Amino acid sequence: MSNTKPVVSQGTAEPEYALWEPLDPDVAGVFRGISSDDRAYRDRARAFVQEEVRPVIAGIWDRAEYPLDLALRLGELDLLRDGIDVPGFPEQSLLAASLTMMELARGDGSIATIAGVQGGLALRSIAYCGSDEQRERWSEPLARGRELGAFALTEPTHGSDSVSLETSAESDGDEYVITGHKKWIGSGSVGHISVVWARGDDGQVQGFLVPQDAEGYRARTIEGKVSLRAIWQAHIELDGVRVPASARMPGANSFKDTARVLQATRLGVAWSALGHAVAVYESAVHYAKQRVQFGRPLAASQIVQSRLTEMLSALTSLQTLLMQLTRAEERGELSGPGASLGKYTATRTARDLARNARDLLGGNGILLENRVARHFADIEALHTYEGTETVQALIIGRDITGISAFA
To answer: 238: helix, coil or strand?
Structure first.
């Protein structure tokens, strides 16, 4: 599956390992019949990763910087929309958006998350729930990456239990006064607009477009993360933030509307996990062929070949599942539990492949320059956000049994 030749070690000097070459593992031919338009998005995302992300991402991740220049480039390359229709942009299929997300995550989890927050959450919220005026104001700037958006749902005391959020939005004449806290909000301290979900006068969850420079909006970038270090996530305090009535999204009237946005992004998270899985598999294969121990490349060992086979088997199964779920979504047939099954399976599989790859690289597996450690850490965040493994299992289990195990 690769033409990479084993590197023969010379003395005590260690060679530079080349671990980024795409391998395109597709034993089942899952991607063989994709359209030229879908392939063009995938190829553009891959070129961006290889040419612009690869040379700089280890340093950016290590320094915990937010790569604003790369976020803008994502918009310039039309890699931010996540399939949302925006006037002036070509049609982008769900599969094209999924392949884009896979390729971005293959490069880096933070880069993929920037795109997921911008297009999958902020832009999608406005597209699904916003007024014509709100869509006209925000759709193109968000799609082009000229302005950054955030999706402020999770609260410090309501993560998996986000349906019980307590941030309030009280009407006061022709304004709303928003009070509460949000946590883990990607781009919430570095962007322009936040989609804030709060409980209105009627007790229902509503959505509001809140400028990040509004008085009373205080965002602190969360530091000390060991995962997704190249996207800034914020702890936000909303201290009596006043917004006009026009800031309320008219299509966001209950948590069901919030859930509609989240369900649409759940497959994107699964495809991101597939991108991580591909990255660590590629790195393991390349390293096994280039790393020489006991006078021969690691790839000559039976146990290494067996483990690479195990990884490819899991990868192929995941590719097949996600393609089937995506086709079902395109037909309008994918259920919420089906989307949860995709996310549940994908992050578990990526986690397992990352563990295997990290181990195959030995001591070199913890070095950022060798790629795997960064993905290993980022998958941990992916495994949690947009619904933890346990929450996804309970959604699926409820569908299987007809009995809810939620409190």
So the answer is: strand
Its pTM surpasses 0.90:
yes
The pair phi, psi for residue 262, each rounded to 5°, is -65, -40
Rounded to whole angstroms, how far apart are CA atoms 210 and 244? 10
pLDDT for 64-119, tens place per residue?
999 999 999 999 999 999 999 999 999 999 999 999 999 999 999 999 999 999 99
Q: Is the pLDDT of residue 4 over 60?
A: no
Angle in degrees, CA 82, 86, 90, rounded to 5: 80
Count of beta carbons in the 10 Å neighbourhood of residue 114: 27
Q: Which of 352, 261, 266 is nearest to 312 (CA)?
A: 352
Helical axes 336-360 vs 255-290, angle rounded to 10°: 20
* Assigned token pair, 43: 């190829």
The pLDDT score that the predictor gives to residue 91 is 95
CA torsion angle 280 281 286 292 (round to 10): 90
pLDDT in tens, 285-320: 999 999 999 999 999 999 999 999 999 999 999 999
Burial environment of residue 334 by CB neighbours within 10 A (0 to 12, 13 to 18, 19 or more): buried
From CA 198, how far away is CA 220, in angstroms rounded? 19
CA gap 186, 232 in Å, rounded: 6
Per residue in 223-233, pLDDT (tens digit) is 999 999 999 99
Please calculate the CA angle 54-58-61 and round it to the nearest 5 degrees: 120
